[in-house]
Amino acid sequence: MENNFQIKRDQNIMTVTGTGKVKVIPDMVVIRLGVLTSGDNLSSVQEENARISQAVLESLNQIGITDIATFQYLIDKIYDFQNGIRIDRGFSVRHIFEIRTHMIDMSGIIIDTAVSMGANLVELISFEVSETETYYLEALSLALTNGTIKARSIAEKFNAKLNPIPTRIIENTSPSVSPSRTFLREDIVTTPIEPGATSIEAFVTLEFSYS
């Protein structure tokens, strides 16, 4: 958002924008991983997938990871084409789990444990902030202060007397979406993973009267 201002001389109204930013270290990790199996017989493919998936779940439970839910379960028919002719290649079963935990430092261990038990898909790792509202309110306070400082500076520049209380405040953002730092499948090459910092921002428009 541009840091601009507008003065309506006929109404003695000054409009400014304010911005605020807070850097936050994520406190939760979301991991999506799972098992892909394929073969000619659907029942056998499903059984193999269920066996490996159960082994993955049990191994994760053993290291204290219990917030696990099925994110996706798909059965697909596999086809190949040769000389324009479709050839049946069997079936594939894809079972993806979503894991949520505040033990961020265990992200690499979670993946290594699952892979050691047969998981062959790691789709996503997302580091998120659980208490977004608290940090957003801090950023909003900074945005209001930023806009007020601008208004004071402008008033001083033009020798105007500023009413310190805004006549109108427009909140241009909301903390509806938790900020995150996400690694997609192609980004995950090694298991030592650091969450880094993310930013929560707020933007406001303020109107002040002056004389």
UniProtKB/TrEMBL annotation:
PANTHER family: PERIPLASMIC IMMUNOGENIC PROTEIN, SLR1258 PROTEIN. Transmembrane segments: none annotated. InterPro entries: 26kDa_periplasmic_antigen, SIMPL/DUF541. This is SIMPL domain-containing protein. GO terms for biological process: DNA damage response. Pfam families: SIMPL. It comes from Herbinix luporum.
